[in-house]
Amino acid sequence: MIGLYIHVPFCKKKCHYCNFVIAAAGSAERHARFLSALEGEAAHRRASFRNISFDTLYIGGGTPSVMNLQEIEKVFAVLRENFLFRAEIEATFEANPGDING
Ligand code: SF4
User: What is the residue with the minimal CA distance to atom 4 of ligand 1?
Assistant: First the structure.
């Protein structure tokens, strides 16, 4: 089993006991910088993983659900563009239930 982990370093606020690398309340500009960095990192790593189809994808953090829908779509677009995934992939997206609607 080969998994890909994406760390989204934003939360609504930083919990006092948290040791993860996160920034509280990322602004749209910070989210844009994160997405740009993700795009660059994925492009940089693409060749190293060109012969691998990932079995699992874990998008964690942080709280990935603080991103808006367009930002989340961008994350998946970057991943699809640069990496291969098995059709029956197990995918996990960490979310705060309060961020989910509809
Ligand atoms: S990652 Fe979890 S524990 Fe850490 S600041 Fe965010 S919500 Fe709190």
Answer: 18
Domain count, the chain: 1
Count of alpha carbons within 13 Å of 37, Cβ hemisphere only? 10
Which residues span the domain enclosing 52? 3-99
Q: Is residue 63 a contact partner of residue 94, using CB atoms and an 8 Å limit?
A: yes
- How many Å apart are CA 30 and CA 14, to the nearest integer? 16
Residue 35's nearest CA partner among 76, 96, 65 is 76
Name the residue at shortest CA distance from atom 8 of ligand 1: 15
CA distance 80 to 27: 25
Question: What is the tens place of the pLDDT at every residue in 31-81?
Answer: 999 999 999 999 999 999 999 999 999 999 999 999 999 999 999 999 999
